[in-house]
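Lab channel / #folding
Pinned by the channel admin:
"Please post every new chain as: sequence first, then the structure tokens as a reply. Keep commentary short and put observations after the output so the thread stays searchable."

First post following the new format, from NK:
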Amino acid sequence: MQSTHSVSSVRRLLGFIFLCSLASSLWLGSVPLTTWQGEVWKVVTASTSVSSDGGRRLVGWKFPSFAAMSVPSEVRSDDDSQGVQEGIKRYKIGDYIRAIESWQQALTFYKNNKNSANAAIVIKNLALAYQQMGESEKAIAYLEGAIAYYHQVQDLPEQGRILTEQAQAYSSLGQSEKAIALENRALQIALTYKDLTLEAAVLLSRGETYRLKGDYKQAIADLQDSAKIADKINNLVGHASALNNLGNTYISLARINYRRANSALELGDEDEADTLKKQASNYDFQALKYFFQSLNIAKKCSDQLGEMRSLINSIPPANRTNQSKLASSTLQQALALLDHLSDSPTKVYAAIELASFVQFHPVDTISPLVQCSQKEAQRKSSRLTQKCVTGEMRPDSELTLKLLNQAVSIAQRLQDFRALAFALGDLGHIYECHQEYQQALKLTQQAQWVAEQHLDARDSLYLWEWQTGRMMRAQNKPVEAIAAYERAVTALQNVRGDIVVANPDLQFDLRDTIEPIYRELIALKLSLEDNSYASSKHNRNENLSYVLNTVDTLKLAELQNYLGKDSISKAVHQKKVDLIGATTAVFSSILLEDRTAIIVSLPSGDKKFKWINLDINSLKQEIRKFRIGLEKRSDIIYNPQQAQKLYDWIVRPFANDLESSKIKTLVFIQDGILRSVPMAALHDGEKFLVENYAIATTPSLTLTDPQTANRKNLRALAVGLTKDAIVDGRIYEALTNVGQEISQVEAQIPASSQLLNENFTRDRLRDELRRTVYPIIHIATHGEFGSVPEDTFLVTGNNDKLTISDLRNIIRSSEKVDLLTLTACDTASGDDLAALGLAGVALQAGVRSALASLWSINDAATVTLVTKFYEEWCNKGMGKAEALGAAQKSLIASGKKYAHPYYWAPFILVGNWL
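Reply from TO:
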């Protein structure tokens, strides 16, 4: 049994090391993306574990640092301390594999000599190394071993510290709920023992977890509390860490509002866009305040790495808030500080990032610089994903080249292969921008080789393959370009699986960091359809099938990017099911910059293909005109001219194929703004499309559950709101027809239940679904679907929001739901992300189908449509799409005002149409 003095000494030692490690992880490891929407050169680190067969499998993602993220612990002096020191030495230069080998030997030594205290320290080091390698599951397992030791010696404060480290590992896997549960346990220990150091550290960790989860309000509260405690106990490291993460949180809030502003601007709402931009700027100013407070503390501590972190963090918000002098002086300070840093991975990544600022964020007071056009400087994508604009960059690039060559040299000396791959690849990109393709390809191939040969660098391989593809395409070498793009996609899928984006910082960048790879490859593959020689070499069906599979992968990425980590994983089928029945055709649209592709998959297996020769901006204008016409109910007689135009583009080219194949059902997998098009309202000059076909939409066939509902013992839970509600200061007027709507649901589906007004709350809905199985959930209330998940919610009877995350958690805790009906919803017209949110609700909730509206209709027409739908589906055996079509046709046939598509067109069926 160890002495109390020995245990106490170990506790103090590990407590100090834990704080340094945690601060380093959260302080240096949480450097925010640092261009308008983020630096892609450090876009992701694949968190993987080695399976028993030697393969790699995705277990999560973590956001990498540009510095060493944690500090391993030293043991008390003994015969094997040298092995521990050797491991620390290897760890510091990024040689984690050899560090692990040294520590494994030390661990064996300590276990054989029954030195549990030192064994626990080494176990923590091993966990740290595995975490840095992305093997968070192994890190968690090792930390469990350390917890067992500290439980045995009854050292609860140390258990609290390890629980916090475990929480960080779970957070890196995207498992925020587990992370928060561990942090809550650790916080309770800290409060029980009045351990202010532990309390500050736990709040720091939990605040970062909440930030990554997207709960910014709680993140700010935790981080502010952590900062106060750290300041109170004069813990400068912890104080600076909390301030830095507060800055990161406000940067995240700024990004959300800039994104909302862009959506508002696209919809023509300039006033709303201006309001949102001002709010985003305020968040940027707040972030700057925290970053500079952190900078001042780093200077007091003579912490040069901390200074560099704060300076680099501050440049993007300074640029966005038009503080050019501040951005210039900050960049100059960072460049000067770089020369004083010792060689380390931190210095390599800092040099790479500063090169990016010099190249794409030129500041007049620094010379020489690589200058770029205003258009290029304002591009959302970061340097590694930018397409160079010919002739717009000066050849005066000495500073950029100097920084990147310096990064290459240091990375080579340190044998930091991941950093080396990025430095070489970035250097190649500079030459790519200058169209010096021979040198660019040479450097890019070197980056490829490094990424292929070294496991910790493989997550960057797709970038260099993509870079190669761009250069091949620029040199008019389509075959070589396609091969490179295909390798890029394969490399990306090897490290990302189905492109799960776990970090919200990266969610803003999907369209600029990942999506271009897929769309550029799709464009190249479709170009083969324009080339008779190429088409003769490639079977059309095979080529188009490849395109559709690529699009499907991108759709999964978009949905998970919008909805958040682990949002739809349970809905994804491991193997595609052939859902195309004998009378069903699937329409897939693919939006490219200059035109749009429509691919139709027929029951025979044949695929047909046509272009809409309209650039994306012109197409958006036409679709907005269509939507405006549909919603203009003041026109007693609807003018179908715009509806006919869209029909001629999308459906008419395939009309003969549909007729000859005796198609009855059309399933649309839409892209971009086409998601907001109610296809039922397209018009062939004589009839609406829904009068000829049953119609459904799905974001992906892979995500569609093709089971026919069991209509025996159907039961519905009907909930709704019939009175005024106020949410966030906005008044939602009473839905006067909801009472009748709920009554009709109960009439058509016996044994149903209802929750109205005050009874419709988050808790009551959850309790009812836990108590009783309801295959149908019918919700008649105001719903908002915006361009970000934060703007997507349903209004409850207690003036509260039911978010899509709330709905997912409530429904997933119950039995499988076949249909979720949402009436009185409102989706922003022309906002493709808002329509994505509408489709995503069903997927995130885990239901097979959703019947929802694109705009709110507080009218008796909704009652009529809903009644007819349930009558045909529940009682007459029709499929869902067929039943919805019958309900819509009944309104059209009425010949009265309800024949106007305003009243019936917004209702769409998402998911399984059977």
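NK: The longest helix spans residues 236-266.
TO: also worth noting, The chain has 35 helices and 17 strands.
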